[in-house]
Amino acid sequence: MVAALDRKLLRDLYAARGLLIAVTMILGLGISAYVANLSLYFNLELSRRSYYAQCRMADFWIDIQKFPNAELERLQRTPGVSELRSRIVMPVTVDLENVEKPLSGTIISMPPDPMPVINSFVLRQGGYFTPFRREEVIISDGFARARNIRPGDRIYVLLNDRRQELLVVGTAISSEFVFARGPGTMIPDKAGYVVLYVKQAFAEEATNMEGAANQIVGLLTPDMQSRPQLVLDQLERQLEPFGEATSIQLKDNESHNQLTSDLKGLRTVNLIVPTVFLAVSALILDVLMVRMAQQQRTTVGMLKATGYSNGQLFVHFMKFGVLIGGFGGLLGAAFGFWLAGYMLNLFRQFYEFSRIINRPYPSIVLGCIGLGVVIALLGAFRGVQQVVKLRPADAMRPKPPEVGRRVLLERWSKFWESLGFRWQMVIRGIVRHRLRTFTGVFSSMMGAALILQTLQIDDSFRELISFTFDRMLVSDFDLSFKDELDYGGFIETRRLPGIDYAEPILTVGCTFYNGHRSKRGAVTGIQQGARLTVPRDTVGDPIEVPETGVILTRRLAEILAVSPGDPLVMVPLTGARQRLTVPVSRVVESFVGTAAYADFNYLNSLVGEEQALNSVQAKVSTESGTVREFYRALKQTPRLQGFSALREQKSQLIELLKPLKVVNRFLIAFAGLLFCGGIVTSSLISLAERKQEIATFRVLGYQPRQIGGIFLRESLIINTLGVLFGLPVGYGFAYFINRAVGTDLTRLPFYFENSTWGLTIVLGAIFTVLGYLPVYRAVRRLDWIGALNVNE
Amino acid sequence: MLLKLVDVDKTYRMGDVDVPVLHHVNLRIEEGQITVIVGPSGSGKSTLLNLVGGIDRPTSGSVFFRGHDISDYSERQLTDYRRDRIGFVFQFYNLVSTLTALENVRVSTEIVRDAMAPQDALQLVGLSHRLDHFPAQLSGGEQQRVAIARAVAKKPDLLLCDEPTGALDLATGRKVLRALVELNTNMKMSIIIITHNVAIAGIAHRLVRIGSGTIAEDVAVEQRIEPEDVAW
Ligand SMILES: Nc1ncnc2c1ncn2[C@@H]1O[C@H](COP(=O)(O)OP(=O)(O)O)[C@@H](O)[C@H]1O
Ligand SMILES: [Mg+2]
After folding, report:
1. Could you say which of A3, A302, A790 has the minimum Cβ distance to residue B94?
2. d(CA A383, ligand 2 centre) in Å
């Protein structure tokens, strides 16, 4: 049997269901965002770990010119090394019959039989190599699908100046290439870059590396995981006889770096929204419960007179909180789990994991339900406290009438009198119910802030794209070569059919040092007056590359903690590898990558060359015939290492950002709910409180529309204040998020379109009107004749 | 002796001013009697009832219930006292609007050990046919009788009624008084009724008149009359 008081509780809840649904929804949305984000993060992280384990992801990579495999066993005895594997890794140009342009690829040698080697892969289609022929290849699955290649198809690669035919036997994915980018391209491009796993014997012969390899990958012993550099230094020393060795740790691995910082960003950024929701729902609940305490004054007095103890009443009224919190939490957890699955699916497009684990986390769900209850209890607390504090003798007496306070505005009597009684009522109400006003303003402020911030992210991306592709990198094609060309090579390249204009580039890979800080990167040497690579300063104006010294992009300068005028040490990764001290001449803006620029001739002289170059940027005439001819010529260009079409990269980036827009639409809907949630609930509360007033208006002949106007006026004032405060708060959110999403590789410009401010205000107006609809409906459906007869 | 008030003072503090309401009130009330306390509005009747019912404390003086000084009680003891000894009936009934008649009675039966069945309590006040009605579906007199059933159902030693007929018309008021008299005769229940309406004193054993904070008159009622003969 349900206790009589519990029955009362349930009926009270039912009577206030409209309001409770609103609060529960806001609370539930907050909880669901927590559940969704946390489980999304945990699931992606779990998926990543399981993928890494499955592929036996290396802890480090060492590139070397030519390493005899026979030496591997000795090298493996180096303390701190748990396992090593040597392999051949070589850039190739891939020629597909039905594709005009040459594509970049990397071949990687694999043992002839399936073995759990370091950096292995997960087969997707077809099978592992067969013993029947040497020219078999397993290609990256994303590329195969994008280019519609199936096991049994043949592809051609340009390797060591020879065109080789390979039979595709399978497709695979690997944790090493979650973000697979071709050389010289900025954006992961499944269709433009392919990893080709070939048999070791084939690789050795095709690259003239019999019995040797050019890369060592390895795993560290557990105790050295935290100090990889110590082991790498030792290995590099032992590798000295075999040519220059350059090593990279897992944390500097581009794909890994991008993936982990993505995930981390996801976790921090997305916790703002739910926190705001929870705060607002606690506030609204507070308003509701304080009102209920006042409404149930005499009931409380009666219960106390009957002999209910404070403890019993405390528990009874707290049950409201527990129920709302528990229900909101449950709803939120269910919706959040669904949302997590939905977003996980979106992320499938970004991250090609061996499997995406979608596991429910009971602890998160329970924790979030608990959080919901705690929030609701916090919200309920003040109201319940008032109930408990109420002395029964006082509760029996009629409530003293509310003190009607004069408002400051009334001093200005001409204006005040011109307002009309409805504005006067609203303004007095707003001043009297401070907490309610605060709740309404706070919630619409947060809503407006979230709308602004969500819209702003879009602005930043658009600015990023336009800055990078319309102003900084304006070539059509970048060609990079395996080794350096002399100036004659450049002239020759410039003559390729279709090229209208070209500029030579020398890129020198190096490590920068400033004191204890270091960063691996490259210096790009561009000619004076270059038109295709245009470094720009922080306000976006193009700058001339000075004749001496290097220019750093802002992020790189930050990492190294240098400013213009400071000396910087750079050690090239190849060649004589001398320590060079160069002055930093300027700092420029860049949002993608950490680049450094220098004058072409100056950089040449630094590395002891003269007019050497290793890539060419070109403008190609847009007639389709010439582009085709240009592609055909490229396929025959011998030492071509990589090739990137910048226009395509731009459209790829735009494509890549589409899922973000879907998520943003959700966020704006969330924010809209928040925007009007506070004022709608407080309107519904005051509607219930003023039943008799409204009944009187109806008797006098007021239409529901005119009465609703009172509430509309109130919400206009509250929401206007909300937007007013929300815009600067949103600016703050946007700034915070802008900082949080920056990685070494990409940063977002902090950029606002003027229209974003305007759109936020327009959306605010729309949400105000939408929020008025339920209030108007409640006014129309109010049983005012009944209210006239009840003596509350 | 059911109740003994000794030198009871009650002063309310309103901001900076003291508002004396009761002054040196001395009163004795016997078991099993109906006592009617009359006085003009604002004379301190409700205050007196609240002191007796343990929902307020005297500023000075003592209230003895069967020899125990309840003005010394802790908050906890007072709550137990209200629960186990006292039944309250209020002028405006104070029913829970979202509970039916039966459920309203259960609100009080559920917190005491040896309570009446709620149905029986409603039968005592003649409302067996209205168990599942909500307060809004009951007349004023019926609501007040539900309130009486609620107070009586926990078998209190003392039933306190603050203007039980104050909001009712004559005919309905008589029905409520009938229910009270019957409780007194059939169950030997002690009852205190406060009212500004002297006519009601006819049904009582004792009449106490209160005026400007003190007891002005305290007499036995010579000629008791039936509730149906009360007129105002
Ligand atoms: N809690 C209180 N605070 C201040 N004054 C009170 C309070 N309760 C009662 N009073 C005052 O005490 C006087 C007596 O009140 P009350 O006992 O309710 O009178 P009655 O029930 O006889 O009409 C009144 O003047 C009333 O205003
Ligand atoms: Mg009174």
Report:
1. A302
2. 28
ipTM value:
0.85
**Tokens standing for residue A531:** 């038109």
**Closest Cβ–Cβ partner in A3, A12, A306 for B82:** A306
By C-alpha distance, the chain B residue nearest A786 is B136
Q: What domains lie within chain B, and their CATH numbers? A: 3-93+162-229 (3.40.50.300)
Structural Rg of chain A based on CA atoms: 34
Rounded-to-integer distance, Cα A276 and Cα A446, Å: 7
Question: Which one of B78, B99, B158 makes the best mutation probe of the A interface by having the most chain A beta carbons within 10 Å?
Answer: B99
- Ligand with smallest separation from the Cα of B40: 1
In chain B, which residue's Cα lies nearest the Cα of A787?
Answer: B136
pLDDT tens for each residue of A511-526 = 898 888 888 788 999 9
| Residue B19 Cβ contacting ligand 1 at under 6 Å | yes
Nearest to B88 among A7, A306, A790 (CB): A306
In a 3-state reduction of DSSP, which class is residue B34? strand
* Digit-coded pLDDT (tens) for A110-151: 999 999 999 999 999 999 999 999 999 999 998 999 899 999
Burial of A265 (0-12, 13-18, 19+ CB in 10 A): middle
The pLDDT > 90 percentage for chain A reads 29
- Could you read off the pLDDT of B100-129 as tens digits, one per residue? 999 999 988 988 888 899 999 999 888 999
Euclidean distance between CA atoms A284 and B97, whole angstroms: 25
More confident residue, A652 or A119: A119
Query: How many Cα atoms occupy the beta-carbon half-sphere of A755 within 13 Å?
Result: 2
Q: What is the pLDDT of residues A343-366, one digit of tens each?
A: 888 777 777 788 888 888 888 888
One-letter amino acid identity for A707? Answer: I
B42 CA to middle of ligand 2, Å? Answer: 7
